[in-house]
Design brief:
single chain, alpha/beta, Cytidine Deaminase, domain 2, 2 domains, two-stranded antiparallel ribbon, 17 helices, 9% strand, elongated
């Protein structure tokens, strides 16, 4: 059951935004979407660095709002380190005014227009807002904030990109097993040790069914090895999100592609198209958030213990999984790590361009049977492109 927080004023809404979004906004343009009087989503974009970039950001936001079911109102909020005192009023006034104008042109009610600056907060729709803004204490000391953040204040939008600590013993075991897998004389013995988990589909199921710290090194080494092969990487990525059936289908597609057959096979073409649409988020079929989170937990353990040259594929899997749940900032940060290791990595470049375009999966906008909206982890109604 969702917890209901009743905001009676702008300062109440600002107090609970971190709980609604699942992160603490920093240097961001955040839009809280409403269906009637209920908030159903939170959209976040980095603040544009240049005035000429504002229109593109606002267009992306309005386009996303138009795709969200039942949304009829919005509260745009600027989060900035700049101060009211710098310009005699809320910073980023022009940006907020542009969002408001474009939202109203699209048919949305702009319920408020807020700025949470470094020294104060205020509403552009409240004529009683002082030039220097209202005290931050009205937000930070708000009782609603204490209730909403009872489990602890969330981190910044990209906090989910923080990986686990490197375990030198585990890293050494993985490296040794990778050497064995690259040795034609030892690989058969390694596959025998893996048993049924030598099958990539069985491997993925074992990974998501076991807590990260209970994963055997050989299983993690096999994951690292397979993630270095693009077709296996993409098949595992889809299986992590959608389950065994999709994983088996993706593996069949990968094996068919590897065969290099020119045979006209309509079923194979249809399967390839389905998988491509899932990768691009062009489907209402929704990933299992709990399953994806378990997969991300395994990847956060594996990546820092993998040889640096073998990390980009794993980071791409993690980035796509984060994106599939609407965590665009996390995905971007993970791809930055992949780029730092391998600047010319093809999948990293493709995913970076795709996510930077503001693309969101269709399943983020499909209606759910339980009435919930788009998701960011376990929180309903949250998207972070």
């Amino acid at each position: 059951m969702s917890t209901v927080f009743r905001a009676t004023g702008a300062h109440d809404l600002l107090a609970i935004v971190p709980a609604l979004a699942g992160f603490s906004p920093e240097r961001s343009l955040v839009c809280v979407a409403f269906a009637g009087n209920r908030s159903v989503g939170v959209l976040r974009h980095d603040l544009p660095r240049r005035a000429r970039d504002r229109a593109a950001v606002v267009t992306a936001i309005i386009g996303t709002l138009c795709r969200m079911p039942d949304v009829d109102g919005v509260v745009p909020i600027v989060y900035t380190d700049r101060a009211f005192a710098e310009g005699g009023g809320p910073p980023e006034r022009s940006l907020l005014a542009l969002v408001a104008r474009r939202a109203e042109e699209a048919g949305f009610t702009v319920r408020d227009l807020l700025c949470r600056a470094g020294d104060a907060w205020g509403s552009m729709l409240d004529p009683d807002t002082p030039l220097g803004g209202h005290p931050i204490s009205a937000i930070e000391g708000n009782p609603l904030a204490a209730a909403a953040l009872a489990g602890g204040r969330p981190g910044p939008p990209d906090a989910g990109a923080i990986l686990g600590d490197r375990d030198e013993r585990l890293a050494s075991e993985i490296a040794g097993m990778l050497d064995a897998l690259a040795n034609t004389e030892q690989i058969e013995a390694m596959l025998t040790r893996l048993g049924e988990e030598a099958d990539p589909v069985a491997l993925v199921e074992a990974l998501v069914e076991t807590s990260p710290r209970r994963q055997p090194a050989i299983r993690l080494a096999w994951l690292v090895h397979l993630a270095d092969h693009p077709m296996m990487r993409d098949a595992m990525m889809l299986q992590f999100a959608f389950g065994r059936v999709i994983g088996e289908a993706a593996l069949v597609d990968a094996e068919t592609s590897c065969d290099g057959s020119d045979q006209d096979d309509r079923d194979a073409d249809d399967l390839a198209e389905l998988l491509a649409r899932l990768l691009l988020g062009e489907s209402s079929l929704r990933p299992d958030p709990a399953r994806v989170d378990r997969a991300l937990g395994v990847l956060r353990l594996t990546i820092p213990n993998a040889p640096s040259g073998s990390r980009p594929g794993l980071l791409c899997i993690a980035a796509w999984l984060a994106w599939s749940l609407g965590r665009g900032s996390v995905a971007g940060a993970l791809l930055d790590q992949a780029r730092a290791v391998a600047p010319d990595h093809t999948m990293t470049s493709l995913l970076s361009s795709f996510i930077a375009s503001g693309a969101l999966p269709e399943w983020a906008f499909s209606a759910r049977g339980d009435g919930r909206g788009a998701e960011d982890g376990d929180r309903s109604g949250v998207s972070d492109p």
